[in-house]
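Show me any protein, keeping tokens residue-aligned.
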Amino acid sequence: MSSIVAMGPVTVGINLTSSRAELRALGLTPGSFSILSVARIEEIRLALEQTRGTLPEPRNGGSVGNTANLIARAGVSCGFMGVGGEDTFGRAFVTNCESASIAFLSKLEEGDVTGYDFYLYDEAGERTIILTHGANALLSPDRIDSDAIQGAELVLLDGSVLSFGTESEAALSYCAQVAEAADVPFGLTLASTQIVNNYRPFYDTFSPKAQMVAGNLEQTAVLLNLDPKSSLDKVRTELAKTPINALVTLDAAGAFARIGGEEFLMPTQEIEALDSTGAGDNFLGAFLVAIRKGLPINKALAVGNIIAGEVIQYDSARLPPSVDVPTLMQKAIQIAESLDD
């Protein structure tokens, strides 16, 4: 059994440099974000292959997937559930999980296309994102491994799952209910302000029951029915009126947590970012690892800040395979333990 079980999207990503002329020729608006049908994104992929030849190797993606990657590489037993297709991308996803010592707890679906995305960077560095949910849209309660959830010490649920398909909300609810019935704590990510708004009944039901909800300041503000541009002080005031345990990333300002009625604020040193993608995901993973190692919440927040600061120095949502994560975590813990309370 895995100590931590994560449930989220089975998706891979491909980063490419492009040009505005090429993007327009593909029917894309430079700087846009689009969720496409499988047929449409496959059409674009084939067009790119015809002009470029073999595309770069895909890299695993997904918010909680990034968190699971950090946790597993830090030496904590971790499993992952989700729906992918029995295709090149699906097999690459599983292989990448295995290389990070993550147990893939689901079965790839024969005949279905794995969800994937393209991050296309033009000559000005502007990013155009296209993605398809693919087989993720098949997620339903009957594809959930309840035994894995019941045998876990912690379950991590990716809020982005809510938007995948007709039964995706039921699947995420089922995961939370199975965990709750087995007295297994679960964490819930906020994913985006749009998802929190669109699935408010789900968050209203399960946020108070979660060991913690995790997101950035804007997402947390929306969870509390506040303006997304609300200040931390306003969010703190509203959180104090609820039973919600929250872990809130503040970008360059560090992180804030309200756990068990206590508040913790941990600033961080500002670091110039090469790519801030995945900073919050890895912050969450590092925080959870630090908590498992017995650090108090304020010190665990500091560890999360340090690891997030490391991640943003790479052009990736994850630390490169060459990084010795256990050693990096140990150094981060030593630094955190040396800080004044």
User: Anything to note?
Assistant: The first strand starts at residue 4 and ends at 7. DSSP finds 13 helices and 14 strands in the chain. The mean pLDDT is 93. The chain has one domain: 4-10+61-111+135-338.
